[in-house]
Write the C-alpha cells for this entry.
Amino acid sequence: MTSIVKALAFAGALAVTSALTPAAFAAKTDINVGLPLEPPNLDPTSGAAGAIDSVTYSNIFEGLTRFGPDGGINPGLAQSWTISDDGLVYTFKLHEGVKFSDGTDMNADDVKFSLDRIGAEGSTNAQKALYADIASVEVVDPLTVKVTLTKPNGNILFNLAWGDAVIVAPESADNNATNPVGTGAFVLKNWAKGDQIELARNENYWGEPAKLDKVVFKVIADPNAAFAAVMAGDVDSYMAFPAPENLPQFDADPRFRVVAGSTEGETILSTNNKMPPFDNIKVREALAHAIDRKAIIDGAMFGYGTPIGTHFAPHHPSYVDLTAQSNFDPEKAKALLAEAGFPDGFKTTLKLPPPSYARRGGEIIASQLRNVGIETEISNLEWAQWLEQVFKGKDFGLTIVSHTEPLDIGIYARPDYYFQYDSAEFQKIMEDLNNATDPQERNRLLQVAQKKIADDYVNGYLFQLANTGVVNAKLMGVWENAPTQAADMTGVYWAD
C-alpha cells in the first residue's frame, strides 16, 4: 500500500504532469481494520461483548470521561469536574456545542438520562454494578451536571470512562443496537452482517475532526484468512491478531510494523463455582496445579503473554505475583482430587468461545487436565452461543475467556456473576476499596483482594493477553497498548 503517487509517466508528457492536482499526492484517508469477532450489536450500554467497544468506543459513542492510550483518565464530553470535600458530589462541566450524529443537541438532560438508565429497572447494562453508588443525577443547567454518590467511590471517574457509561439520547437509545446515534468522531454508514462494518467521518463532530474519511472493520476470524488479508494489503491494521505464529514473518517485512503491547485482558480458565465438583475448593486447587501456563502460552500464543496467578494486570502498580501459589504440579493435583473424593477424576464440560487463545488453549488444557484424571467434553461455541449458555445461562463447568475490562477485579464481588463466586469476605474488601480514597490504602486493599481470590482458587489464572498485532508501516496513531477493548480510530492517520 502506498500513500502517494510514486511514479509519473514523464517522457515529455508535460500535459499529463501539469494536469496532476495536489490531491493526487495526498495521504490516504481510508483504512481497513481486521476484527477477530463481529459484535452482536453496536450498543455498548446493553451488552457484555467486548467486540462492541472495539468498534464503537470513542469512534461512535463517548462518555463523560475516557481512557487515553496510556490508560490514564482524560476528559471526554465533560471538559472539567470538581469533587466535594466529602467525596460524594461530582460536578461535571460539559463541552459546549456537542451534537449527536442525528443533529440533535447533547446536553445535561442526556447525561442524566444515560446515567439514570444504567440502574433503572429492566436495565441490560452488563456493568451496572459499577454505578450502583450513584444516588442521584441533577441537571444544574444545560452544561452542568451534578452526580451525588451514596458513599465515596474512588473509582467513579474510572468507571465513567467505560463504554457502558457512554452518553446517549432518549430519542434514539432504543435503536442504538442497529442504528447507533452517538457524539463520536465517526458515524455508522453501513453494516453488512457477517462481513464488515463501515464508518464515515462525522462532519459535524464537536471536537478535533478525525483525519480518516472512512474506516471499514472487516470481520476475519480465521487465522489463515487474516494472514492472507494483511499480506495482500486488504487489511491495514489488525490488533489482537489471531495467528501470533505469523508475527515474525511480518516483522521481517518492511511493509509492516508489529506491535506487542499490553492489554487489560486476564485470560482465565473460568470455573463454575456452584457446580459440583467445582464447589469444592480442593477440586479448584487441583485444577490450578494441573495447568502448565508456559505450555499454554508457548503452544497457543507462541510465547506472547505474561503468566498470572490472580485476576490482575501485571503492569498495574498494585500487582502481586502469585503464580507460585498455583504452580504446575500434576502429582499435587492428583493428591488433591483424591482428598476431595475423586481419586479416579471426573468428567466436565469445557465450552470455548471463538478467539484463537480459547480454541487453541482449550485443546492444550484439556490434555493437561486429562493427565490428572479430569476428562472434558469440549464444545466450540459461537460468540452469541457463549454469551447465552455460559455468561447468562451459567450452563458450563469450565470455559476459557479473556476479561478485557480494565481493573475489573470487582466482578468477584458479584455472587450472580457467571462464575458464581460468593464470598462475604471478598465483598467486604471491595466495599472498603470503594470507600477508600487514600492511594496507599487502595493499593493495600487491591493486593489483599488479589490474594483472597488466589487463596480461594476461584478460577484457573493463565496469562495476561498481549496486544499483539500488525499494522501497515505508514499507519500512525494506532494504540500499541489496550487499556480498554477499543480500536480507537480518532487519532489514526497515514504518513505522507
